[in-house]
Amino acid sequence: MIVRPFRLSDADTVVGWFKTAREVATWGSPARRFPLDTVEIAGFFAETGGERPAKRMWIGEDANGHAAATATTFLNWDQAIARMALIGVDPACRGQGLALPFLRDVVDATMDSAPFARLELNVYTFNEPAIRTYERLGFVREGVHRSSARFGSERWDTAHMAMLRDEWEAERAGRSIASTR
């Protein structure tokens, strides 16, 4: 998996991954429009420029150069907090073990880019595969916001997870030690 900055031309590929309103809501939130369109993604992309961007967007390419995963980090420079969001994997690539290495690289790039004290994310509690991936990355569940999102007649609970800088540094050091064995 190669991780690179998102290009606006990637938007056409990413919008094709979400075939239902539920998929869009699970990816972004029930506030996202369905069908997802490139205009909405272009709005996020517009905030990625400059020395201290509000967002960074990422694409993970598989060995064939196919965009297989995406994530966005929202950056609060004043509070030294980053938040990962809009995490998605091409449905054709799910179950292949791509999410973990992709997200590990996104976490590393985010934490390497500035002295962020904290990296956090929200995930709906029914998304158990994503939660397992985030826990394997070193994220800690800090709590659940019950009935925090409405999708149609359903109410969804949102788990709040985070990783502190020292936890990331320890996890990264452990990877370095393991790779020398």
From TrEMBL:
<keyword id="KW-0808">Transferase</keyword>
<dbReference type="Pfam" id="PF00583">
    <property type="entry name" value="Acetyltransf_1"/>
</dbReference>
<dbReference type="GO" id="GO:0016747">
    <property type="term" value="F:acyltransferase activity, transferring groups other than amino-acyl groups"/>
</dbReference>
<dbReference type="InterPro" id="IPR016181">
    <property type="entry name" value="Acyl_CoA_acyltransferase"/>
</dbReference>
<feature type="domain" description="N-acetyltransferase">
    <location>
        <begin position="1"/>
        <end position="166"/>
    </location>
</feature>
<protein>
    <submittedName>
        <fullName>GNAT family N-acetyltransferase</fullName>
    </submittedName>
</protein>
<dbReference type="InterPro" id="IPR000182">
    <property type="entry name" value="GNAT_dom"/>
</dbReference>
